Structure prediction request, 94 residues.
Amino acid sequence: MAEPEDLLAQAIKLLAAAGSDLDYRVVIDRAYYAAYHAARQFEEQLPYRSQAVHQSSHEALFQRLERPDGHLDYGLKVISKDIAAQLRMLKPLR
Prediction:
């Protein structure tokens, strides 16, 4: 699996050469997946993980990030919820 940094680097490289709507769609897709995989890594490294689950893997991650485990400290809860909100805004753009 590609690392988030690799996906973001690819998106930046593609952006430099983009010239059509299709090119920009590919850039957005790569950038979204960079953010998604970075968010997944963040969530997997939390000391306490939420048990919220939904059908698709993206939706499940969004819900776990939106509903962090109650044992997490306040700062991690805020970050988790913020990441979920940003991903929810990005997903429809891809």
